Amino acid sequence: MSFVPETLILLLCSLVVFQASADISLNNYGDSAYPNRCVLDIGSSVVLLKMGQAFRLKSLPCTTIFCTGDGYGMLFTCDKKAPPDDCRYTEYLNWDDDYPNCCERKVECN
């Protein structure tokens, strides 16, 4: 994987913006049939992302893939922090909102 300066800048900016509320992983979404693209097979279709583009997976709660280039992308999901003592998380409050606002969940306490 070779990063160009623009890719590194996008990667660093994304980490700064999302790190407070996200679990982040770097994954290979490459496919030799589509060089320099992130290729997402979402079952009913294939999504092709160029470097700097993002795609929200509607089937998973608040999950976004940000293409960093050369087939690699960062997968952003909500931070898996524990609820306050004697409380539990229930439904997502803003399921259709943009990331990271979609991470907000209702808290029910005893």
Automatic annotation (TrEMBL):
GO terms for cellular component: extracellular region. Coiled coil: none annotated. It is found in: Secreted. The keyword Secreted applies. It comes from the Eukaryota. Residues 38-109 form the Single domain. Residues 1-22 form the signal peptide. Keywords: Secreted, Signal. This is Single domain-containing protein. It comes from Drosophila suzukii (Spotted-wing drosophila fruit fly).
